[in-house]
Amino acid sequence: MSRALVLNASYEPLCVVPTRRALLLVLQAKAELLAGTGHVFHSARVSVDEPSVVRLAYFVRVPHQAHVALNRRAIFARDGHRCQYCGAQAENIDHVVPRSRGGTHSWENVVACCRRCNTRKEDRLLEEAGFRLSRQPRAPRSRLWLLAASGDVEDEWVPFVAPVLEQAVAV
Ligand SMILES: [Zn+2]
Predict the structure, then answer these.
(1) What SS3 class is residue 150?
(2) How far is the CA of 121 from the centre of ligand 1 (A)?
(3) Residue 171: what pLDDT?
(4) Which of 19, 36, 76, 104 has its CA 20 to 30 A from that of 160?
(5) Is the pTM of this model over 0.85?
């Protein structure tokens, strides 16, 4: 047993749960099975396809702006592990407006950065250092975006997760 993707009644990806939890949702008629893992779960009374993707029978209201935790892994995933100044392999996190200059530790002010650029930029503003961002940093729109961006997605999830990823990248 591994993990299953749970979709809202509207087909919007909601969360990832242990397969056992998804199986319970299906058995309790709280969700329908959309895609199986290819394995069959046998109990004393029933045999059910092991769920990989399920859709809730009821609509769950979620906050419009889903919150994605700001951490190193998430920033690297958002920025494709590339330095947002020169495109080299990123190794550090840089505050665009340095914290010593009043910059915040927020999605809009942190970028993945290579060691060389990080060292060259020092505690300077972009214009002072002659640096340019390859794109404006923004907060990811969906919690599932991080999962999709990190490549940690089962094959059966792709048709359901891909639209979310495209939407998140097209900012
Ligand atoms: Zn760089």
Answers:
(1) coil
(2) 10
(3) 38
(4) 76
(5) no
